[in-house]
């Protein structure tokens, strides 16, 4: 199985309950353990577990906040959120010798809020007397409970059996999940009226004698047309032109504009068509803002390129266009610029190469170790308004969230776990995004950065 497709099991719990011992027991002596850079992710480690019917990954969440001065309940909250975000199942480890503590109770409240399966692991149950003590943990209310002794290897097989049952791990091949590869790539062609959207669709369809079939769309105002180009099938969503509210003439036009907005929501990639000969207007920027708010991949299609300073040299024309677009669409800095002339069938090959490039780039991931090193280096060298010292923002761990299989062009989603997260401003988040893009450009893709941690008191 591809490592990216494996299930992840996170081991959570307060300090000194035996999480690392359980991790080592599940990993086994011959399993290589990968460490991220020391000091960035603390002693966070991951490894394979091959004890079950199917290989799965395990994560030891120990060490988060070990050197901070926050109260323990805040540390436990952050630790739990790491597991809740990246894991498919959580092992909640408790110590039968100590009994139920206030930290166990605090972590229980957090874990009860998740829809992910939780297995309560009562560790250090290596005698009949201690197993009796494990019964007290039934008060926490978890359905799945396993008594183990990680140090002595007791109860590990039973624990793996429970994990396999909850994650549906089996030796048999899994049923095929509906994949984005089984459907066309959805392209929403949006823009203000008369920008050349329909002309672009006609140019695409007329360039090659591809099989074209009209598919029943959501309304008469958004026409879905299938188009095959090479080995890839596309679904062109030709939308109504989006005009500013004051110029909407009647209910039918208002309704069609709403459908155009909905087309943005269901698209894999949005092609924002702009009349570059006429110039970028306020409505173009508003439509671009709609795409950004929908967190959709975007390509800026600058139509009527043949009419844009036609007497100037090609290099000078492109430099002028690029400078203008970057200034007017500064908030879509990630969107590639493709000049086309729908009327003269110019630039279409480059447009589809760009579409395929955006799709391929979206399937790539930033390694967790690389991500944490990039962010920590940026924070160390440019602390900015967050400042330095023991009472400022402190990054604990960062990861890229796995995307769903049905997403053809997934938007990179990063989660940053931190102490005093409330001190992190939006401007500094944008700075951190720019540093991630130096390692992973993500052309055409908006980035989503979410910070989790202690709230301001």
List the helices and strands and how they pair.
Layout: E1 8-12, H1 19-27, E2 34-35, E3 45-49, E4 56-60, H2 72-86, E5 89-95, H3 102-111, E6 118-123, H4 128-134, E7 144-147, H5 156-167, E8 185-190, H6 197-207, E9 212-219, E10 222-229, E11 232-238, H7 251-266, E12 269-275, H8 282-293, E13 298-303, H9 314-328, E14 337-339, H10 348-362, H11 368-381, E15 394-400, E16 413-419, H12 426-439, E17 448-453
Parallel strand pairs: 1-4, 1-5, 5-6, 6-7, 8-11, 8-12, 12-13, 13-14, 16-17
Antiparallel strand pairs: 2-3, 3-4, 9-10, 10-11, 15-16
Helix pairs in contact: 2-3, 11-12
What's the gyration radius in Å? 27 Å
CATH architecture of the largest domain: 3-Layer(aba) Sandwich
Counting structural domains, the number is 3
CATH class term of the largest domain: Alpha Beta
- Assigned CATH superfamily of the largest domain: P-loop containing nucleotide triphosphate hydrolases
Based on DSSP secondary structure assignment, what is the total number of beta strands?
17
Number of helices: 12
Q: Helix/strand/pairing class, anyone?
A: alpha/beta
Overall geometry: elongated
The H/E string reads EHEEEHEHEHEHEHEEEHEHEHEHHEEHE
Strand content: 15-25%
Give the low-confidence spans: 30-44, 63-73, 207-221, 248-254
Q: Name the helicity range.
A: 25-40%
Q: Taking all residues together, what is the mean pLDDT?
A: 79
Largest sheet: 7 strands, mixed
Describe the strand arrangement of the main beta sheet, using strand numbers. 2-3-4-1-5-6-7
Distance between the termini: 45 Å
* CATH topology descriptor of the largest domain: Rossmann fold
């Amino acid at each position: 199985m591809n490592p990216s497709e494996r299930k992840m099991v996170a081991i959570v719990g307060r300090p000194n309950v035996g999480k690392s011992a359980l991790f080592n027991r599940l990993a086994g002596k011959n399993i290589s353990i990968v460490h991220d850079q020391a000091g960035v992710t603390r002693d966070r480690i991951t490894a394979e577990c091959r004890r079950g019917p199917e290989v799965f990954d395990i994560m030891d969440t120990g060490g988060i906040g070990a050197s901070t001065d926050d109260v323990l309940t805040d540390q436990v909250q952050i630790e739990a959120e790491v597991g809740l975000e990246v894991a498919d199942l959580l092992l909640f480890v408790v110590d039968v010798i100590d009994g139920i503590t206030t930290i166990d109770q605090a972590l229980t409240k957090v874990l009860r809020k998740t829809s992910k399966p939780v297995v309560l692991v009562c560790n250090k149950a290596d005698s009949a007397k201690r197993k009796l003590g494990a019964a007290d943990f039934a008060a926490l209310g978890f359905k799945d409970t396993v008594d183990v002794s990680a140090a002595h290897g007791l109860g590990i097989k039973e624990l793996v059996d429970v994990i396999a049952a909850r994650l549906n791990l089996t030796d048999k091949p899994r049923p095929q999940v509906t994949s984005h590869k089984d459907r066309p790539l959805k392209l929403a062609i949006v823009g203000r009226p008369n920008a050349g959207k329909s002309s672009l669709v006609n140019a695409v369809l007329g360039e090659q004698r591809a099989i074209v079939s009209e598919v029943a769309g959501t309304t008469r105002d958004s026409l879905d047309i299938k188009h095959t180009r090479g080995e890839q099938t596309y679904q062109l969503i030709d939308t109504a032109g989006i005009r500013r509210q004051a110029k909407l003439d009647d209910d039918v036009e208002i309704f069609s504009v709403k459908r155009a907005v909905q087309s943005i929501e269901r698209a894999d990639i949005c092609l924002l068509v702009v009349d570059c000969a006429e110039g970028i207007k306020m409505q173009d920027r508003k439509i671009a803002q709609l795409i950004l708010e929908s967190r959709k991949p975007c390509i800026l299609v600058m139509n009527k390129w043949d009419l844009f300073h036609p007497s100037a040299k090609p290099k000078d024309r492109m430099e002028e266009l690029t400078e203008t677009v970057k200034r007017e669409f500064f908030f879509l800095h990630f969107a590639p610029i493709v000049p086309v002339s729908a009327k003269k069938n110019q630039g279409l090959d480059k447009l589809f190469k760009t579409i395929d490039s955006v799709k391929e780039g979206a399937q790539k991931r930033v390694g967790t170790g690389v991500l944490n090193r990039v962010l920590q280096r940026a924070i160390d060298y440019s602390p900015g308004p967050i400042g330095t010292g023991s009472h400022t923002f402190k990054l604990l761990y960062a990861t890229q969230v796995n995307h769903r299989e049905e997403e053809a062009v997934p938007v990179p989603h990063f989660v940053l776990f931190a102490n005093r997260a409330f001190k992190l401003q939006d401007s500094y988040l944008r700075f951190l995004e720019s540093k991630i893009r130096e390692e992973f450009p993500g052309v055409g893709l908006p980035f989503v950065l979410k910070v989790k941690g202690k709230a301001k008191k």
